[in-house]
Design brief:
Number of domains: 3
CATH architecture of the largest domain: 2-Layer Sandwich
Helix content: 40-55%
CATH superfamily of the largest domain: Histidine kinase-like ATPase, C-terminal domain
Number of helices: 10
Shape: rod-shaped
CATH topology of the largest domain: Heat Shock Protein 90
Strand content: 15-25%
Order of helices and strands: HEEHHHEEEHHEHHEEHEEHEE
Length: about 400
Amino acid sequence: MEHVLPQGPAVGLMLSQVHEGLFVVDARPALAYINDYGARVLGYADAAELLASGASMSAFFTAPEEMQALVRNTREQGTVPGAEFQVRRRDGASLWLEVSAHTVRDPAGAVTGFWGVFRDLTARREAELARDRLHAELVEAHRRLESTGRALRESNAALQKRNRHLREFTAAVTHDLRAPLTTLKGFAEMLQADHAAALGEQGGRLVARIRAGAEQMALVMRGLQELVLLGEESERRVEVDLAQVMRQVLEGRRADLEACGARVEVAPELPRALAHPVKLFLLLDNLLSNALKHHGGPGAPRVSLGWRREGGGVSYCLEDDGRGVSEADRERVFELGFRADRDRPGAGIGLVIARRVVELYGGRIWVERASSGGARFCFQLSDVPPAVV
């Protein structure tokens, strides 16, 4: 066995510096030689310390039968290249080695031992295990994502179906109530006009209450119809001139504006908005209606539509000189049915519609105190197209 590897001091020095483990075992098999690098891989200071310990090669294998199989296969085949084994260091730490083994034969051809090389694969195997764990985690995350996406799609489909049924129900109710409500209002007006004397003061007040209730219900139905429109209007985003939309709103409100003498100013060069023109009409119309409704000063209402740049976008602001909104109510005014002043006409739906329009475009709406003491309703619209509703 002493002639398996080249001899001499220079050769010994070279073998000790090779960055692969070199070993020689006899036929028993007992360890006859190992270089310093190989000894350090197995947890010893150098080859001399390992050889002096009397440790056998089988002691390093976590599965001794693998050592036996390596010896048997090498004996039968002459060479076993690149076999991988899990072994134990001196301190008990686990390693992965790639071992290539070859037989040593005497002149008669009998096997007298084995020699070979081994490389430390621990870092590579740990990287492979980490990769496999990461792959398994990614597969599981993908499976969960697909499952969540499927559940969300099913939930969204069910929600759209419920919303469609709700819109259909609301449309049917408002349609069916329109005729009897018009009749009720008409009879109340006839009683007031033709039978005022017969009704007397008490009867007149009761009929007035009937008429006011009918008008209030008409406002509620109009608001519900507008909410239905928001849900049914097909999305078609275009660049919209808000000044032009505001002029259309003012034209539609001409009678109301003339009745109260309101003055409405629109800032020049309003930035265009990417939205649906009908929805912006509903937004501005409901904001203007709210401003006119809550004017509390002695003079004629003053309303202005302006804009400002903030937060990387454009804020549009409709400001009035009314009584304003208390800080405590600045969130509640956008809730369905909320009315800060129940002595004034209204259904508590207008600002809900305004908020719904803004939210359809991924924007936000809020109210703040104006310099005049009135209310300033501001809104921003996202440039990202909203989901089709």
